[in-house]
Amino acid sequence: MRLLIAGGGTGGHIYPALAVARSLLARPDRPDPPDLVWLGGQRGLEAELVREAGIRVRRLALRSLRTVDRSVHTVLDPIRLGLSVPQAAAILARERPAAIFTTGGYVSVPVVLAAAPLRIPVVLWEGNAIPGRSVRAIARLADVIAVSYEAAGRALAAAHVPTYVTGTPIRDVTAISRTAARARLDLPPDGPVILIFGGSQAVRRFNAAVSAALPRLVDRVHVLHVSGESGYAAALAAREQLPAEVRGRYRPYPFLRDDMLAALVATDLVVGRAGSSTLAEVTALGIPSVIVPYPHAAGHQGANAEILAAAGAARIVADEAFDADALVAAAGIAVDEPVRASMAAAARGFGRPGAADAIATLVLALAARRPLPAPEAVDALARGAAT
Q: Domain 2-170+353-383: which topology?
């Protein structure tokens, strides 16, 4: 059986799709793993990340990261999109997948448009509480919609497509224990730890807040800080300015690729943005969070954060209000055991560590032309056993 995954651009579209791909390849109920092919675009991260995962990649003419500023690409992007529809149709006709899974975004548009006349069933996933424009445009052509938030399902109800709340597909968060994670990062087995990362966009605001707050932070907690490449030298310099007896409490990193899961498992509080994948891993692990939504993402991150904050799992700080004082106040959660425990319990209520398996089940049901599972069964599979 051949299955096609369509996605590209940013990690928010690629990593969830890779999680579903891993689930499809590791299904215990299928001795013969499916043949996976990935369909992406130009300019995005998919060419590198997907090939590293050992999945064959084909690429459309369009750029999977659509241009938002005015340039020559403002004219060329619609042309590339138009050319990509017959290109996608030719690829689908050649590959003949039994089903398609797509994580939305610009790449999904020509793929879903091409799949409809070929009668190839599609599972479309939306990771934000407010559906993106691409998902809204093609939702009615999908056979199944999977969403991370109930609000997104309500927003897409007009498409009249079976919709499941699966959460965001993530990696296996049980792959490392808290004890092993702390040992791996050379952290003490007990004592509060906070993890601070601003993602790839507007990370300078986070770095400035950490730099100004650092002496007050290390008096109370151990700090894991992802500064980005551009801020790493300054972070190291700030570390050297600390008194020797507390210097080891501050651990700056330019990035945390292989050790990001260990950092999450080891921490007591996350301070960061509100991307769907970040929040999915934080809630699956039952970690309290202080969220600083990225203000230039069409309101997606703010809407994601508000749902967790309303349930008591997170606190929100507006981007323009995030400074050293706000960061020190946030760190107080890590040392306030009753507050931290209450927020952790609320976070676990949102956790869906089995989201990838739930979506893989839907994809395989469509591919085999079997009846779709009951929403209750998919929900139970998605919720899994949060750690």
A: Rossmann fold (3.40.50)
